[in-house]
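input
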Amino acid sequence: MQVLVIEDDEETAAYITKGLAESGHGADRAADGKEGLFMAMENSYEAMVVDRMLPGLDGLSIIKTLRASGQETPVLILSALGEIDDRVEGLRSGGDDYLVKPFAFSELLARLEALLRRNRPATVETVLRVADLEMDLLARTVKRAGRPLTLQPREYRLLEYLMQHAGQVVTRTMLLESLWDYHFDPQTNVIDVHISRLRGKLDKGFETPLLHTVRGAGYCLKAPDQG
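output
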């Protein structure tokens, strides 16, 4: 996914672009409204994250101009204005979704992914597969090479999240926000402990490991042919 981030706040922009890069996505950043509109018109993006209050040209004006030109790229509006009237105005201006600051990156990413799914045929995925690893979401069973694996509830949720993001680097921040509901790093080894237990059940006794630690970044569940 290639995303255009139009955000004048350096810290917020860095938080978003870093998170997207860690999640395996590309991101370009514009620091003001006029630059953002130019980049949006001149380049092709799968989604855009647009701050509402921008120097030069405000976010809603950018969106209105893009929609008037026939561009239908999904837009997620970011704003510190969170009242109902503010949200309605943003959506009626052509925005596809509205996220109030401060926000968790995992929610921003989930909303972007949801925007991309809207125009795709609806499918219900009930079985996740990575190499010879299979998770049945209905039966809540996990097998590797046909061998059943017994997981604790938290281990199951952790593996499900990793399989849903197979081939991508999943950061500690993403895991803390999604599975432990922490929006900060509590500086504990809870993730390391659960990853270690899961790796023991997932890879022990098998020739090819699937769960990898990416030093300084996070963890990645991937098939051998994913590099």
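quick obs: Residues 190-203 form the longest helix (14 residues).
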